[in-house]
Predict the 3D structure of the following.
Amino acid sequence: MGQPLNTPLNIGIVGCGNIIVQYLDTLPSLDALRLVAVADLDPARAQAVADGLPGVRALGVQELIADPGVELVLNLTIPAAHAEVALAAIAAGKQVYGEKPLAATTEEARAVLAAAAAAGVTVGSAPDTVLGTGTQTARRAIDDGLIGRPISATATMVTPGHERWHPNPDFYYVPGGGPLLDMGPYYVSALVTLLGPVKSVIGAASHTRNSRVIGSGPRAGESVPVSTDTHVTGVLVHESGVLSTLVMSFDAVATQAANIEVHGETGSLVVPDPNQFSGAVKIRTLGSEDWKVLPISAGYAQSARGIGLQDLALTPDGGQPRASGTLAFHALDIMESVLRSARSGRAVDVGSRCGRPDPVPLTQPAAAVG
């Protein structure tokens, strides 16, 4: 086994939009990482971020990618730009970690992974929420046989739409957006982490409105056209034989369903929101009348967005980070396959495979990792 990358790893962020705040809240507490530069197509926005961070430089996008002091590029651009930025960073010899999805399409994502393999650099990708105590405690319960042989799972995400809170929601409602490609990575990555890779899918999809009205910010009241499906349902057939059912919607109001449930021969699990790092894992076993909360037994405790970067930095040379590009590619492939199935009305085989990521032992606090 090789050694981890040299740490602390110097990080440069490309993209200073809404999501950067969550990373900036976490990065100072992660001792394997050091933020050194930020960039954005809007130089003023990058400068505003840098002004609040001593020692962090505001650079142009290409300047940051070429900078020898930047060892890993954290790609927080919109999905349509993920591949372009990642490929430029890889060409410059940088490690890459990006927001989800890995790229706008599997074709683009495949090119990113191929370029990284040729250059000998590592690619990681959000979501890293699956590394927290919520999903990891549920995984340990499954691996320890607490519910017997897994049979099925459900994953449900229902919201009336991001335009109600996001000031620039346009990209959610064009091809490459929609509830499945936006929120699905959390749920699909969690299902693969819990139950293993998926070999085929069946999907159906619809949308109820041809436009959306922005509810906040300077564009409030402006209408945004909708050109992608906004309610998607899919059945995922895992290699293990487990059947997982997805419901991802920007059309409905709310649900009381658990975010994820996993059912086995001798018990059922309620898994917390995969968009969060923690939460109660509940179990009910055959013959019992009540649900009980399982003690936290695995995962990066007290973690938040960015822990996947630390995990990558501490992955031995030649190894796969848990929030890997391979997992992200498989998740994207699954989601694209669901959408192809919805269009064709036929089951679709998923061409890619990935192993289940290594489990995360209970690690507390996150900053002490390594």
User: Anything to note?
Assistant: The radius of gyration is 20 Å. Confidence is low (pLDDT under 50) at residues 366-370. The CA atoms of residues 81 and 318 lie 27 Å apart. The first strand starts at residue 9 and ends at 14.
